[in-house]
Amino acid sequence: MRISASIVVMASTAAAATVTVMVPATAQAQTEQQWDSCYGIGVPVTAQPPQILIAGCTAVIQSGIHGGRNLVSAFTNRGLGFRRTLKYDDAFSDFDQAIRLDADYLPAYYQRGSLFWETADFARARQDLDQIDRLQRREAVLSAEELGPGEAGDRRRQALAATGNAD
């Protein structure tokens, strides 16, 4: 029995299409599970085993899909995983990257400052804590400005006075 070349090509194409469809679906499910572990969906980040947290956040970072605060959060959370496994250089690197991506992201400063404290670099820990304080005060001023006149004006004046920028 002779099989025509066109039937062989069609069968090969159909088999390849089946494999192509199945692989991304499997990869997508795995990636969603990794994203959930990185972002603490279902199980809080602090309760994740550090290796799962690191693997999940690495998948998020390498996917190239996420940007903005999601990517910043992935670097911060992976840094937390590295910190918990005592890989301090990797943790510092991730916290630094998170801050480079978003200089206003308080959790990255908090985690890095805590790690500086843990490693007895008290001067740098203090710098991060001071930066957190500055960012929180600035946020208080901005929030008060959004509220408008009256009580909001009083809050704004209090926030400005706390930052040394009285009206």
Ranges with pLDDT <50 over ≥5 residues? Answer: 1-27
Please bin the fraction of helical residues.
Answer: over 70%
Shape: globular
Total of DSSP H or I helical runs spanning 4+ residues? 7
Order of helices and strands: HHHHHHH
Report the sheet with the most strands, covering strand number, pairing sense and barrel closure: none
Number of strands: 0
Write the layout of secondary structure elements.
Elements: H1 5-39, H2 50-63, H3 68-84, H4 88-101, H5 106-118, H6 122-147, H7 151-163
Helix pairs in contact: 1-2, 2-3, 3-4, 3-5, 4-5, 5-6, 6-7
Question: What would the keywords be for this entry?
Answer:
single chain; 167 residues; mainly alpha; 7 helices; disordered N terminus
Summary?
With 167 residues, the chain is mostly helical. Helix content is 79%, strand content 0%.
3D structure, described in words:
This protein is an all-alpha fold and 167 residues long. It has two domains: 5-103, no CATH class; 121-167, no CATH class. It has seven helices and no strands. It is globular, with a radius of gyration of 24 Å. The N and C termini lie far apart (94 Å). Mean pLDDT is 78; it is low at 1-27.
